[in-house]
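Mods, move this if it's the wrong board.
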Amino acid sequence: MIEILLKPWPWYLSGLLIGLTVPTLLIIGNKNFGISSSLRHICAVCLPANIPFFNYNWRKEIWNLFFVAGVTIGGFITGQFLSSNEPIDLNPKTIAALEAQGIDYTDKTEYTAHSGSDHKLKYDVLMPSAIFNTDTIFTLTGFIFFVVGGFMIGFGTRYAGGCTSGHAIMGLSNLQWPSLVATCCFMAGGILMVNFILPAILKAIL
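Not the wrong board. Structure tokens:
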């Protein structure tokens, strides 16, 4: 059993389990699957009740906070205790594209393939430490990526009435056309950001 947990699961199995969250929540408690709604609930708990957007009975939605807490705890346990600690096999095209934009993966591990002569590179981290490290937080790069980026995610998901879980998974499962529009905009925004906006930002700050 432990060997199954230590190895990455195939996409079709992981995707199926995530998708089954929708009917499970509906059957057990008639609850809608969503993650970003927890941000509103947290604000409703902490901020004054005279703000109309946060003036509702958040206690009825407290299950969502426990759900998100479970996701967080599960991710921590998996990352700390159920990881194989093997180097990560990232797509060379992804690495080349990032390095062309000034993001260097320094945590490289050279290994020999089973053929005995084919030398390749694997990586010790999934996210480049040139950006994702404690020193970067207090720099312009960190401010743009973490503060500005975090604000845009938090504001955007609530302005859209949900994130990829609420719209792309829950909403599309219920055949909601607003969720289809939102999901298409998510994808279009991601494509635009990765191919045009992000390279310009990286060129300016790195």
